[in-house]
Amino acid sequence: MIRLRRGVLGAMLAFVSTTAMAQEGPAPAAPREAAEVAIGVLHHGANFHPLGSKLIFDLPKLPPGQIYEGSEEDGTVDVQIAYRTAPLRILLKPRLTAKAQINTAGRTSFFSVGAEWRQHILRGRVYGQVGIGATVIDGYRFAPDPFQPGISDAEAWRRYDIYRRRTSFGSKILFNPNASIGVRVDRRWAVELAWEHYSHRQIFSDTNPGIDNVGIRIVRRLGR
C-alpha cells in the first residue's frame, strides 16, 4: 500500500513538473548582437601608442615659440561620431564601421571606414576590441612653406601661422589602427576607453609624423 501511494505521488509530481515546463516554454535566448552608434570625446595628439613606439612623454621642453615637428596640433579636442554594423558571419565576425572625428579647434579632422573585431569576457559585461581602417583627412599633406623666397610679408606670415598650427601628414590618405575596452552598463548602453592612430608608414611620402588620440566613447545598441 505504501509503495502504491509513493508511486501515485511520484506520478503526480512528474505531471505537475511537465505541465509547468510546458507553460514556461524554453528559456529566452540571449539578445542578438545588433548595430551600434557611438559618440566620443578624444584628446587630439595624446603622444600615446600602445605598442610603445611613440612613448615620448619625456621630451625636453623647447624654448617659447618652438614646437616639435608633428606636434603642432597636440592638446586640442576631437568629437567622434561612429556607426557599427551588427557582426558579419565571416572572418571572425567583424563589424563594419564608419567614423567622423571632427577637431573642435579647426585642426585636422578624420573620416574613416573599416572593420572592428570584438571579444567579450565576464559574461559579456566587458569587451576588448581592435580594428583597422582607411582614413581621409581634411588637413595638410604638406603645410605651405613660410620661408619660400619671393613671397610677400603678408603671405609669409599667413603661411607661418599654418606652419606652427597644422601638422603635415605626408598624405591625404592614412591608415587607422584602433583599439578600445568597453564596459556594458545595460543591454543597450556601454562606455569605451578608445585609442585611435592615424599614419601611413611612409608609404606615400617620407613625411609621416602620425598622430594618436585617446578618449572616451558612449555606445548605444540599436534595435530592441
- Cα end-to-end separation: 57 Å
Instruction: Tell me the total number of β-strands.
Output: 9
SSE order, one letter for each helix or strand? HEEEEEHEEEE
Please state the CA-atom Rg, rounded to the nearest Å: 27 Å
* Overall helicity: 10-25%
Order of adjacent strands in the largest pleated sheet: 1-2-3-4-5-7-8-9
**How many helical elements?**
2
Overall CATH architecture: Beta Barrel
How many structurally independent domains? 1
The main pleated sheet reads as:
8 strands, antiparallel, barrel
Here the CATH topology equals: Porin
Note down, in words, how this protein is organized.
It is a single chain. The chain has 224 residues and is α+β, with helices and mostly antiparallel strands. It has a single domain, classed as Porin (Beta Barrel), CATH 2.40.160.20. Helices cover 16% and strands 37% of the residues. It has two helices and nine strands, in the order αβββββαββββ. The chain has helices at residues 2-24, 153-165; strands at residues 36-44, 76-84, 95-103, 110-121, 126-137, 173-175, 178-184, 189-198, 211-221. The chain has an eight-stranded antiparallel beta barrel with strand order 1-2-3-4-5-7-8-9. β3 (95-103) and β4 form a beta hairpin. The chain is elongated. The model is unreliable at 1-31 (pLDDT under 50).
